[in-house]
Records
---
Amino acid sequence: MEPRTEAIYNKNIAITALVGILASLLLAFKEGVFSPVPLYGSLIFILILFIGHFLTNYLFPNQDPALFILCCFISQLGLIMLYRINSESALKQLIWFGIGFFLYFISSFVCRNWIEIKVGSLIFFITTAALLASPLLFGVELYGSKSWIAFDNVLFQPSEFAKITFSLFLADSLKNHKIEKPIYFFGQIFVVLALLALARDLGGAMLFYFAALTIIFAATSRWDLTALGLIGAGVAGILGYQFFGHVRVRAKAWLNPWEDVPGKGYQIVQSLFAIAEGGFFGTGLGLGRPDYIPAVTTDFIFSAFFEEFGFLGAAALIVVYFLLVYRGIKISLSIENSFLCLSALGITVFFGIQIFTIIGGVIKLIPMTGVTLPFMSYGGSSMVMSFISLGILNGIKMRASGGEADG
Amino acid sequence: MDKLKGNIKIIFIIFSVLFMSLILYLTYFTAVERERLIKSSYNRRLWEQEEKVLRGTIYDSKGRPLAETGFEGGSKKRIYSGGKAIGPLIGYSDPVLGRAGIENVFNGELLGISEQDPVTLLRQKILGVSERGNDLYLTIDIDLQKTAYDLFQGRKGALAAIEPQTGRILALVSSPGYDPATAKQNWEVLSKDENNPLINRATQGLYPPGSVFKIITLASALTHNPEIENETFYTPGYIKVNGSIIRDGQHLWPGEYDLTTAFRYSSNTVFIQIGQRVEREKMISMIEAFGFNASNRSDIPIAKSTFPRPPIIGGNVEMAESFIGQGRLLSTPIQMAQVTAIIANDGKMVTPYIAEKIVSPLGTEKTTAPKMSTTQVVSPQVAEKIKALMVDVVKNGTGKAAAIRGIEVAGKTGSAENPHGQAHAWFVGFAPAENPRIAIAVVVENAGSGGAVAGPIARDVMLKYLSHVIQ
C-alpha cells in the first residue's frame, strides 16, 4: 500500500476509535453513576478493529481495507445505539460482531483461493431453495413471518444467507450475458420468490425480486425485460393490495398513517415523531426516547439514531452506507471474470436495495417493509451474513488485483 | 464485458439517485414537516415535556392571569381564574381530559417546544430557564368579557367583538359557559349537558344569519347596481319566487320603500327585489369576498361559514332566501363580526386574531398575529353609504335599543328563522360610527326579536369598551 493511502486509512481507524471512546464515556454515565461496561465494550471493539485492520492488511496485501473500516464504523454506531437502548442486546451484538469479523476473514480467504470448482448454478439454486424452505418446515413464526429457525435460544434467519447463494446463483446463470434456458431460469427465480411469499416475508420477496431484476439487466442488457420486470412489480403490488390484508395495511399506513394512529399507523408515526424530535442537530446521545419506537433495535434503529444524532448524523450515516455501495461497485468494475463481476454486483445490489428500503421505509419515503439495516440492526444472522458478504467482496477484490481474467 | 461494465455504471447512478433522494427527503422533512409533527397531539413526547416544563401563563390584554401553573402540595396544578365567562375560549389542559380551546391551540408555545433555534435552546439550558414555557398574552380584556357574558344571563348565545382596523379580538363570549377550574369535577354533567357549554359558540356555532346578512346583499347591490339608490320599490308584503311565497315581518306594511326605509325596517321582500337585480355570479363572489366559504386564516380555529352554491339552473328560491340571510346560509358569530368590521373599516377586511404576543422565559417577544394583509372587499364609498344606513337603523329603525347617548352607533338587527323553535336574535354593529373602535356581533338563540334582545347586549358591551378607550 502506498504510504499516503495508508496514512488515510490509519486516520480513519483513529477517528472511528475516538468516536467509540467518546460515546462509551457518555454511555458510562448514562444511569447517573459511572459504569465501566461500555468502556470495556468499546475497548474490545477497538481491539477487534485494530487487529482486523492490520492483520488482514498484513495477510492480504491486495485487499480493500475500506470495506472493513466502513462496516466497523457503522457497526460501532449500531452498538452505541443498542447499548443506549438495551445494554444486554449490545453485548450480544458485540459477540456477533466478533464472530462476524472472524467469518469475514475466512470468507475473504476462501474466496481469494477459490479455484474454479465446477459448482453449477443448480447447486446454488438448490442451496438457496433449501435455506428458504427450511424455516417453513422447522421454523418458528415471529413478527408475522415464518422465516426463523431456533437453535436452543439462538434465532437464525436462513433467508439472510440465501441472499449470498442467490447472488451466486444469478451470477452463474448469467455469466455468458444471456439467459440460456429462460423457462428453467425464471422457474427457479419464481420458486425462490414463492418460498419467500409462503413465509410471508414480503420485504424479503421484494428485495430478492429487485436484486434479480438488477442483475438480469446488468448481465443481459435487456431493456425490454427490465421494463417488463418493473411493470410486473407494479402489478404484483396491486394484486398484493387486493388480495393480502397485510399488504393493504402496510400501504394504508404509508399513504395516510394519521387515519389510524393508535392502530395501523402506529409504528410509522412513532418513527416520524422520533425523526421530527431529532431535527438538524439531534437531541444528543441518551436524550431521545427510543422506548417510544416499536421494533427499535431492528427495523427502526435508524429512527432512534436520527433522534439522537440529528439530520447531520443521519445524513453522514447514509453517506457512509453509500460509500460501502460505491466500493462494492468499484470492485465489480475492477474484475474481468464475469461470474465474479456479477457475484460482486449481486452482493452490492442486495446491500444497496436493503439499505434504501429500510431507511426509505422508516422515514415514510416508501412503504415500510421489515428488512434489517445491515451492520446496525440487532440480530446475529444479519450481522454475520453482512460480514460474509463483505468478505466475498474482499476476496473478489483480491482476485481482481491478482489479475483474474477470462472475458 | 464492456456492456456489463456500462450497465453497472447505470446501476451505480441509480443507487446514487436513490441515496440522494433519502437525504433530500430528510432535508425536506426536517425543514418543513417537522414542526407539525412535534406539536401533534399524538406525540407522547409532549406529555413528557408537560411534566418537565412549567406551562406558560395565559394573560389577558391588561396582563391579568387567566390560566397559570402553580404548585399545590408539591405537585403542579393549573389554576384558572377567568371563570365561566371565558371558559369555552380558554379551554383546559389535563392529562385525563386532554386539551381544548386556547390551551390546545397554543399548546406548543405554552410548553415552549416550538423553539427551533438551537442557540436559544442552548442559552436556555445554560441559564437554567428552560423549565418554563412561554407566556401568552391574549387580545381579550377579561372585564369586558365578563360584562358581556353576564349580559346573556345564562341564555344560549354568543358574542364576538373585534377592533375593525386590526382584527384584534376584544371579546369572544359563548353562553352558557363553564369554569375550567372545576371542569374535571363536573365533567360528567358538562359533557352531557344539552346546552353544550363545552362548545365555543362564537367560533364554532353555525347559525342562519337572518337579516343581518342584508348588509352583504346591500353591499353587492350598491357595488354592481348603484342605480338602486335612487329607486323606490313597491311591495304588497309578500313576494313570489318560482311559486314560493316569502313574506315580510308583521311590523311592515305594504307600499313603496326606498333603500333607506327598506333597510331601516328590514323588508325581506324589497331586499329580495334588490338582490335579484344583481347578476348571480357577482352576488356569489361578493358573498365569498365577505368571508363565506373561505378557509380560516385566524390564529384560533374558526368553523367555516358556508354559502352552498345554488344549482346553476333554477336555484332562484335558494338565492332569494340567501338575500335575507335564510335558506342554507350558515355563519359563525365571529364571521358576522368580521362582516361588520369590513363596513366599519372603509371596506377593508382584516383577519381576526387572539394572540397579542408570546413572551419567552428570557423575555424575548414574538408576535403571532397573522400578517396584516388587508383586502378591499367593497369600495370606501360603498362602505360609507352602508354605514349611513346602519346609523339610521339604530337612530330610527329596528335597532333603536342599541343606541348610546352621545355616541353614534351603526347597526343591523336580525331575527333568523330556524328549525329549533323561536327565531335567533341577532345584532351586529359598530361604534362610534365616525371613528369605529369596536365591531360586534351578538346572537341569542331562540330569543325572538334581534332588536329587543341582542341589541341591548351589544349596546352595553360597546358602551363599556368605549368608556374605557375614549376618555
---
Amino acid sequence: MDRSFHGSANYVASEELLQAVNIAMALRKPLLIKGEPGTGKTVLAQAISSALNKKLIIWNIKSTTKAQDGLYVYDVVQRLYDSQFGNEGVDNIEKYVRLGKLGEAFTADEQVILLIDEIDKADLEFPNDLLWELDRMEFHIPETGRTVIAVQRPVVIITSNAEKELPDAFLRRCVFHYIEFPDRELMEQIVRVHFDKLDEHLLDQVLTAFYKIRQLPQIKKKPSTSEIIDWLQALIHGGVNADRVLQEIPYAGVLLKKTEDLEALRRNWR
Amino acid sequence: MFRDFLYLLRSRGLKVSLTEWMALMEALDKGLHKSSFSGFYHLCRAVLVKSEADFDKFDGAFLEYFRDVPFQQEISQELMDWLDRPDVLTDWANYDEETALKNMGLSEQEIEQMLLERLAQQDEEHNGGRYWVGTHGMSVFGNAGLSPKGIRVGGQSMHRRAFRVAGERKYRDFRGDNALDTRQFQVALRTLRQFSGLVDRPPTEFDVDGTIRDTCDNAGTLKVRYKRPRENTVKLLLLMDSGGSMDYYARLCSALFQAVEKAGHFKDLKVYYFHNCPHGNVYTSPHLLRTDAVPTQWVLDNLSGDWKVIFVGDAQMAPHELMGDFYARRDDRYRCGMDWLRAFQQRYSHIIWLNPSSRPDWGGYWSQTYDVIDKAFDMFPLTVDGLTAGMKKLLSNK
C-alpha cells in the first residue's frame, strides 16, 4: 500500500478506524461507517480527502433521493419545452443528460473521495439499486447509448445512522466500521485538536461534567462530540469561571437540545 | 485458512457469505492485518461483520475459535528459553505478601504496559525476583510465578494480550435480541409500511410518463399531468397493558410507545390502554381513569378491519380475569376477557401480541393465562428482534 491514512491535523481517529479505512482502500470496497450522531462520521471523509490530498465529492442523501439521481438526470421536461419553441440542439440528447455525483466521481481524471452521506435516509431499495454501479464502477445511459466507466476507482465512504436496515446484498460488498463513542482520553485529544490554547482546569471540569451528564439515565438525547466542542466554545466566549462549570452547567442549552432533557438535568443534577 | 472459523461464525448466526470470506483472504494476502493478532481481529470484524448488533456474536465466536492459539509474537526465543523451567513449578519460597497485594491492584492494561517495558529492557535471565520477566518470582509476568495476578509468558501459551480485545465483549448491548431503546424500535417499526398511490390526497406529484403520453395525444402541445403521491397506508391500533405486573416493564413499554408515536409514518394511529385483559372499556391514558374510558365495542365498530393491531402485555393474570364471567353484566354479549380478545381477532386479520416477559415457569398459576393467549395469538417477545419479526407478520400475515 503506497498511500495509507493516518488521521489528519484536525481529525483524531482511533487505531481501529484507521485500519478500517486502509482495509477498505486496499480491497477497493466501499467503507460503511455507522455510529452515534455527532461522532464525526461525515467529517471522516473530509479528513481522508485532505490527508490524501484528493478531491472530495459529497452526495447527500435525502428521503426523496433515488439511485438514478446519483448517476445521471435526463431532463426530459426541458427538452420538451425546448422542442415547443424550436430551440437549437433539441436533437442532441447529450445536452439534456446531466451527470449526478456518482457520475461526476467516475468521470474525474484523478482519483476522488466519494462520500455518500446518510444512505439510510433514502428508500429501502436505494442501496440495492447501486449494487452494480459500486461493484463495477460503471453505468450505462440508455438514452445516449453511452457507458460511463470510472477512470480511477473512487474511494467510497458511506455513512449511516441505522435508521433503516441496509439490505444484505449491499452489506456484503462493504467494509464495515462502527465508530464507538470516544472515551475520556480520546475525547481530550479530539478537543485539543479543535482549540489552540485551553485552560487545563476548565478542560478537566468540562470533561467531567460532560461524561457525568451522558451517564444520567433520564437524558434521552445524549450530547456528543460536536456538542462538547460547541459548549467549550460557548464557555470560553462567555468567560465562564472554570469552577462554576461542574456546579451550574452554564449554557446547558448548547449541550442538550430538548426541553425535557434540560428539565431532567435541572432536576437530577447534583 | 481456518475454514472452520467460517462455519463456526455461520453456526453462530452470522450471515457471512463467500464474497466476504474471499475478501478476507484477499486482505490477508495483502498483509492488511499487519502481522499482529489484534490487527487480525479488527480485519476480520471489518470485513465479515456488517452490524454492531452482531459484534458480540462475533466476539464470542472469535474467542471460542482462537482461544488456544499460542501467541508468541514480540517475545524473543532467548527469553522463552530462560522461561522453560518446569522444575520450579511448586516452589513457594519467594512468596511475598506485600508485593502480592500490590499486584492485585494492577489493571490488565498496567500489567501489559509494564510487560512491554520489561521486554525492551531485559537482557539476562531472572528467576525468583519481583521485577523482571522470569519464573517462580513475584513479578506480574513470567510463568510458574507466585503473583496472584499477571500475564503468563512462555510455558504453554500467552494469549491474554490478544484476548483483552475480544474478551471484554463490550458490544453486548448492541445485540439484536436485547430489549433496547426507542431508536431501534423505530427502525423496526419503519418496516411496517405499504405504499400505495391510491390515497385520497390531491395530485401534487409531477407525472413524467403521463405528461409525455398526453402531450403526444395533444399533437405535441405540452400538457402537464400530476399524480397522487405514494403514501403509507398502514393504520395501526396499539393496545397496551398497564399497571400491576406490567410496572416492571414500564420503561420498555414507554420506549415502544415513543417509538410508535415518533415513527409518524402511519396513515392513522390509535393507542388504548387496558389492565391485564380488555373488557367493556379501554382507556386513552395509561392511568386507566374513568374519564378516559372508551367502550371497547366502539373501537371494534369504528376502526375498520384493515387496521393492524398490536397488543402489548405480559399475558399473566388471575385465570378468572381472562376466562371467568366475573366482570360481565347480564346483558353483555361478551362474557369474559377471552371473548373480547376473540372479537378483536374476528374483526382484524392482522394482529400480533408483544410480550415483554417470557413464559413464567416457576409456578403453574401465572402460566395458565399465558398459555391460553400464546395459543390464540401470534406472540413475539418485546425485543428488537421480536418486534421486527412481528412487523413482518403484520405485513404478510403468513
